[in-house]
Amino acid sequence: QLHSDVDKGDGSIKYILSGEGASSIFIIDENTGDIHATKRLDREEQAYYTLRAQALDRLTNKPVEPESEFVIKIQDINDNEPKFLDGPYTAGVPEMSPVGTSVVQVTATDADDPTYGNSARVVYSILQGQPYFSVEPKTGVIKTALPNMDREAKDQYLLVIQAKDMVGQNGGLSGTTSVTVTLTDVNDNPPRFPRRSYQYNVPESLPVASVVARIKAADADVGPNAEMEYKIVDGDGLGVFKISVDKDTQEGIITIQKELDFEAKTSYTLRIEATNMHVDPRFLSLGPFSDMTTVKIIVEDVDEPPVFTSRLYSMVVSEAAKVGTIIGTVAAHDPDASNSPVRYSIDRNTDLERYFNIDANSGVITTAKSLDRETNAVHNITVLAMESQNPAQIGRGYVAITILDINDNAPEFAMEYETTVCENAQSGQVIQKISAIDKDDPPNGHQFYFSLAAEAANNHNFTLQDNKDNTATVLTRRNGFRRQEQSVFYLPIFIVDSGSPSLSSTNTLTIRVCDCDADGIAQTCNAEAYILPAGLSTGALIAILACVLTLLVLVLLIVTMRRRKKEPLIFDEERDIRENIVRYDDEGGGEEDTEAFDMAALRNLNIIRDTKTRRDVTPEIQFLSRPTFKSIPDNVIFREFIWERLKEADVDPCAPPYDSLQTYAFEGNGSVAESLSSLDSISSNSDQNYDYLSDWGPRFKRLADMYGTGPDCLYS
Asked: Which residue windows are transmembrane per the record (predicted)?
């Protein structure tokens, strides 16, 4: 309540209020000065309000006292429960930890005023998780309450922690949170093999590095605490087998280090130890963190291929060896107890030229062809050995045959020399240095001897000097050379090697005479300028040759044109207009019988025809020979032509037997088939009159004669 000393209680004073919450949260009675709250207040939202009050004269509305400021403080009550703002919690603690080991600290917050009463004083307690864990009431630190908690027995716990204000007294508010505690692993479990001994069977043919077996020592720990190390500590297979660890499964992998041989040893015994790699000294009292087991490996017999006594045979033979010469012997045996006989052969893929043979029973290798070291100095062949009882079992041996050299190649020039000598050369001048090569390979190296051949020893032009270092020098023997006299010299050089017996060859050195400059460098070596006749230059010679070639071309053109003029004009038979009749239906040999309409044949009945005897048809009409007329009308020519064709068809072995001509012989007058024409002839009963054809001119005279009714009609 606000009250002014000026206020006499007569209502002349009026009170007003301003500031935070004025009129909305706080109101004032303007007559009495009483301040009231219009709604529920929450200290946690706002703990203080600053207001200003003033007393005014009601009539003049002027202040009667200065404005006064005051603060309204909200007094706290316990209306907020504690809250775990960071919950729920997760934490971990090593297994086997001692009692009192700190796990995690939880914190609850109370929004009430901590300076007023006990509304914000929180006490912690554990509602779930006993008797394994406990909590400090004031700090909220969770600790282990039992010793030797084993992760392998139970690895996770769920705790419920309560925070209660009012120092835990009755009537206080509370909040809860959950804490998940996981026991982390420690190496408190030594490895142990499930069995004291193991046995595995493996075939003797198992390749080196193959896996024989996998064994594993059990360890209840996880992660690094379960990592193992395996080793073979004893047994008769220390050098034959080895063991390694699989990092993912922690298994011990036993593999083969050497080839197994049933005939040599049938079983092996191994003592294997498994040890933890990371041992915790705190738990050494639980026992040694290692274990032992015995592994027995039984070797099973398999049918093995023959085995050679050596992986590689080295043999030598001279290239002069005759066919059938023995080079060496290979040997193989069946390693199995049956000891089956072995037969030998050469893999021809390694001896394509078949230089060698091998005795199938003894393994003796001999030459089958003449050898040449210069072609192939070393032959690498593969010898196959197969069991007689089981040819599928094949062993392979490798033979390297070195061919020994003999002196069978004569020396020769090292290259093709292009030797020149200047026209102004002086006597004793070096014009060429030569060397030699030899395909042979003597053990002490080559030594060549050079000299001029006997026929050139006394020549007056050149001489040869042996340098005693497998080279020789060619020198001039006189001063000056002339191209017009001799442009090329051939110098035979005799070369001998140092072989036993020695071989020799004569090689010819070609020496050209050239025009040289002042430095002795050849400029031109051609001698044509001296060969041409006097007064005739090279350009003139080229012009003469061009004229001769031009004349030859003209002569060839004239001959070709004359031959073309003499050739007869040949018409293409397929384009002859007279043969258009082949495109219509006709009698006789059919549409493809183009010879039937050769007009020359129609007008010449004296053509000699080959008479062919027909075997499948006997002519129904016997034909009589007819005289030859010198001048016969055209219609008779056609009739005779038809008779000739009919006769040929009857005796032709190629004509089909069902040809209509075989039945009717001919059409028209006197034929049993009568006329086959689409136009009625004069002998028919047709009323058609073709006399008008005579009025159409000479071009239609032929038709008028054939179908007209005149007295000269051949068919009347």
From this structure: 530-559
Tens digits of residue pLDDT in 46-61:
888 888 888 888 888 8
Q: Which of 524, 545, 574 is where one domain is finished? A: 524
Of 331, 194, 198, the closest CA to residue 254 belongs to: 198
**Both tokens assigned to 78:** 């316990």
pLDDT exceeds cutoff 90 at 632 = no
- Residues 60, 98 within the same domain: no
Residue among 204, 132, 124, 212 nearest 168 (CA): 124
The verdict on residue 436 lying in a domain is: yes
Total tally of structural domains belonging to the chain: 5
Position 485 in a domain: yes
User: Are 419 and 503 members of one domain?
Assistant: yes
d(Cα 151, Cα 96) in Å, to the nearest integer?
Answer: 8
CATH assignment at residue 131:
2.60.40.60
In this predicted structure, the answer to whether residue 667 has a pLDDT above a threshold of 70 is: no
- Which whole-number Å values give the CA distances from 107 to 104, 131, 139, 161, 415, in the listed order? 10, 21, 8, 10, 102
Same domain, 400 and 416: no
Q: Which of 269, 300, 331 is the last residue of a domain?
A: 300
In a domain, 679, yes or no: no
| Range from 29-38, 408-417, 597-606 carrying the lowest mean pLDDT | 597-606
699 vs 710: CA distance, rounded Å: 17
Helix (H) or strand (E) holding 634: helix 634-651
Q: Does residue 633 or residue 513 have the better pLDDT?
A: 513
| Cα 48 to chain centroid, rounded | 84
Residue-wise pLDDT tens digits, 481-492 = 988 888 899 999
Give CA–CA dist 298/201, Å, rounded. Answer: 5
Residues 19-49 pLDDT 10s: 888 888 888 888 888 888 888 888 778 888 8
* Residue pair 70/51 in contact by the 8 Å Cβ criterion: yes
Count of other CB atoms within 10 angstroms of residue 562:
9
Note if the bond before 88 is cis, omega within 30 degrees.
yes
The residues, any chain, with a CB within 8 Å of residue 285's CB and separated by 6 or more, are none
> pLDDT tens digit string along 214-230?
999 999 889 898 899 99
Q: Same domain, yes or no, for 94 and 117?
A: yes
**Distance separating alpha carbons of residues 613 and 628, to the nearest angstrom:** 24
146 and 208 housed in the same domain: no
R_g of the chain computed on alpha carbons? 67
Q: Using an 8 Å Cβ cutoff, are 76 and 117 in contact?
A: yes
Q: Can you give the residue range of the structural domain that contains 130?
A: 83-184
**CB of 293 within 8 A of CB of 215?**
yes
Sign of the alpha-carbon torsion through 430, 433, 434, 435: positive
Examine the domain organization and report whether 383 and 425 are in the same domain: no
Region class of 237: left (phi > 0), else alpha (psi between -120 and 50), else beta: alpha
103-117 average pLDDT score = 85
∠ Cα 565 567 568 (to 5°): 115
pLDDT of 666 reads: 57
589: amino acid identity, one letter: G
Judgement on whether residues 118 and 173 belong to the same structural domain of the protein: yes
Q: Are 346 and 366 in contact (CB under 8 A)?
A: no
The answer to whether residue 108 sits within a structural domain is: yes
